[in-house]
Design brief:
The complex is a heterodimer of chains A (114) and B (112). Chain A is mostly beta strands and 114 residues long. Chain A has no helices and eleven strands. Chain B is 0% helix and 58% strand. The chains are: A mainly beta (114), B mainly beta (112).
Chain lengths: 114, 112
């Protein structure tokens, strides 16, 4: 079966712009989580969506937001981009809430803010 | 701040040798998971061990969990060049609805 698909793979944006990243989970998976990976901070949890509702949120400013659609696909949006938002953004899907079976990650979207 | 601390930060071994990576964490957990990442790509789930388990095997991987010491280890036996990657432990925290908190990772290099 198809894995977790993240689009686009690479993105270059200018400070102050906004960006939307997309994640299509594995078919049948209803939980989608987002993580940010940077060399300085490592992997940090952004938020988790399940049944179109945000269930959990990490310590990120309100410029970071997301949503989940009825087909479980998810998008995350970052507004007013800052240089420090340059990172690899990873999406992970799971069958249900909780991580008792592990998560399947996508290949990520590498965002560069210039 | 990150929940897990991994040790060593980097490890370089010869093909065929065993590699051991350690992870320590701070709070009570539901489970602990190990992931591999190749060259800044996505994470690949390797193995999950629940808080009531002490040891788990999967192929050449062996994971132990000591909840009294809040630590885990990942052993890769008979390593191969293809095992070269970054390895992360991630804890699913009870009080945070099972979100994953990752350690800083161990960079493993297997020389052929």
């Amino acid at each position: 079966k198809a894995g977790v698909t993240q689009t686009p793979r690479y993105l270059i944006k200018t400070r102050g712009q906004q960006v939307t990243l997309s994640c299509s989970p594995i078919s049948g998976h209803r939980s989608v989580s987002w993580y940010q990976q940077t060399p300085g901070q490592g992997l940090q949890f952004l938020f988790e969506y399940f049944s179109e509702t945000q269930r959990n949120k990490g310590n990120f400013p309100g410029r970071f937001s997301g949503r989940q659609f009825s087909n479980s696909r998810s998008e995350m949006n970052v507004s007013t981009l800052e240089l420090g938002d340059s990172a690899l953004y990873l999406c992970a899907s799971a069958r249900d809430r909780g991580s008792n079976y592990g998560y399947t990650f996508g290949s990520g979207t590498r965002l560069t803010v210039v | 701040s990150q929940q897990g601390e991994e040790d060593p930060q980097a490890l370089s071994i010869q093909e065929g040798e065993n590699a051991t990576m350690n992870c320590s964490y701070k709070t009570s957990i539901n489970n602990l998971q190990w992931y591999r990442q190749n060259s800044g790509r996505g994470l690949v789930h390797l193995i999950l061990i629940r808080s009531n388990e002490r040891e788990k095997h999967s192929g050449r991987l062996r994971v132990t969990l000591d909840t009294s010491k809040k630590s885990s280890s990942l052993l890769i036996t008979a390593s191969r060049a293809a095992d070269t990657a970054s390895y992360f432990c991630a804890t699913a925290l009870m009080e945070y609805g099972n979100k994953l908190v990752f350690g800083a990772g161990t960079i493993l290099r297997v020389k052929s």
